[in-house]
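Morning. Coffee machine broken again, so started the prediction first thing and wrote up yesterday's gels while waiting. Chain of 265 residues, entered below exactly as on the submission form.
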Amino acid sequence: MRTLQITLLFFISVFTVNAQEVKQNLLNRYFEVTTNVKEAFFYRLSQPFKGYWAYTDYDSKDRVVRTGYFTDSNFTTQIGPHSFFWEGKPMYKGKFVDGKPSGYWYFYNTKGEIYDSLHYVEKTTAEVKNSFPEKNDEAEKNKTAMLQNEHMKKDSSVVFATVEKEASFPGGDKGWSKYLTKQLSMPDLIMAINRPQRMTVEVQFVVCNDGEVCSVEAINSSSPLLDIMAVNAIRKGPKWEPAFQNNKNVKAWRRQKISFIIPED
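Came back before lunch.
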């Protein structure tokens, strides 16, 4: 951790001259501000931006880990665009509204290319849209459009919220539980940067009248890396037995809560 201390002192001296309002903080492994150097895994540089606080978190090798915005200098609520990196490579990016992910989030492969996306129930406001810079290039815009089309089924028929017979997974509830348990596991990175806890994501989706699953989105978030696992387990699973209403198969909404437990060390 000696390297981290030396790096921090360098940045403090530079920013004291150029920007009096820049803050420097040590962070523990959970990205929480700490004054204990022995606990420091990361460090943060932050400064005011249009009424918010822009921040960048670095690891001990001066590589960017997170960038984004908070509503205040106490770093209580994230807002606007956010990017997460690991070992110098991008992992995912998206936007926050009132501390919650909103809209499309995108995930990167080891080549730095977008390879997947997930959608959170939209919470975007005009204030968030207009306050922060957008940095998508043309290639990313094209990939974004392709992923959005891929994850949506072009079917204009009505989606039922209440039906005579609910859509069902092959093998019923037991088959569904067994399938999800087999598909889901806890990534090492999640366990490394989160305290022991239960993390739950609720996913809603549509089962179309042919049994295909589409329009999968997260209602809330545990962590984007867990959320994309939960969404993909549902999105890429087998066909369902469709819902039934008025003597025919119909499209219908379903919801599923999925919990991940981070054990004590």
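The mean pLDDT is 85. Going to sketch it on the whiteboard this afternoon.
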